[in-house]
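Researcher: Here's the sequence for the chain we discussed earlier.
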Amino acid sequence: MTERPDAATGMVVLIDDTRLFRDGRPCLMARTPDHGIYLLNELAGQWIDELWLDYDLFDENSEPIVEHLIGLAAAGHPARIRQILVHSARTLEGFQITTRLRLAGYPARREFSAGIWTRNLDRRPLPHEYPRTAHT
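Model: Thanks. This is the structure I predict for it:
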């Protein structure tokens, strides 16, 4: 089971292909849909305080992650997430996945805080990225 990165700030999960938090806040990170689902499964049963979710993930998108979360909720076992912050630059897709997650019972909202990000266009794995062993 994965431990909280910082108990004082709560567990933060970032699923994004290029963005990193400018302030360097502790987080667990995935940059592809498969790795995002892997990380969420690793955290099953634990509370995630913030799940930051982008739509575009390299040459893919976050639809498989959204479907995974909706499937868990439909089965009566939703992921334990206090808030989902959809921060996609794609307005329509961001609105759609936010709406779908809310309809499934998740506390999802759009987030437009552009100043909190820095970019990492390097595709090499990051130290806090999941899974730690196999990267595509």
